[in-house]
Design a protein that fits this description.
Layout: H1 3-15, E1 24-26, E2 34-36, H2 44-56, E3 59-64, E4 69-74, H3 76-84, H4 100-110, H5 121-130, H6 135-154, H7 161-176
Helix pairs in contact: 4-6, 4-7, 5-7
């Protein structure tokens, strides 16, 4: 199961209030993993309970009252827990040539381990989301991610090592299928 699917499943369980029809979707923006329209379908008291449950489960919630949306992200400890089970070494070299740039990015990221707290979390979120998309969507993002890594390395700043772990897990799942 992809890492983002695990987080989505946990959030969905915590967001279920009775038989309310709220939807949990992947957030398009860079600041959060998920967005839910649950506030449109629950009372303020139920929403408060859900937000407390999510907080206790190490999820970060931001309620946008104007749009009646709940934005959700994993906290640092939740990310660390999720990433602990992911590969720390590059997967076997892919036979499919179109995947070679993605493999190169994965290998580059895994060469630079740093604690999660120092990594650019936006890039990790992006890779988590992209690994659920089609291969062309993932490949389309590779040049910009390579460029971001080059800039970070030149500035002696940490690259998103955890994104390399997510990519390695994606390769492992792709090989198994």
């Amino acid at each position: 199961m992809p890492p983002l699917a695990k987080l989505r499943e946990e959030c969905q369980v915590l967001c279920n209030v009775g038989n309310k029809p709220g939807h949990l979707r992947r957030c398009v923006g860079a600041g959060f993993l998920f967005v839910s329209d649950l506030p449109k379908h629950t009372s303020p008291e139920e929403l408060r309970e859900v937000m407390l449950s999510l907080g206790h489960a190490d999820f970060i919630c931001k309620y946008d009252k104007a749009r009646e949306l709940l934005f959700l992200d994993a906290s640092l400890p939740r990310y660390e827990c999720l990433l602990a089970s992911l590969p720390k070494k590059p997967p076997p070299f892919p036979q499919d040539e179109q995947l070679h740039p993605l493999y190169a990015l994965c290998s580059l990221l895994l060469l630079h381990p740093v604690p999660l707290a120092g990594q650019p979390i936006e890039s990790i979120r992006l890779v988590l989301k992209l690994t659920e998309d089609s291969v062309p969507c993932l490949l389309h993002a590779v040049p910009a991610m390579h460029q971001e890594c080059a800039v970070l390395l030149r500035q002696r700043m940490p690259v998103p090592y955890a994104a390399g772990q997510v990519l390695a897990a994606w390769f492992d799942r792709s090989i198994d299928q």
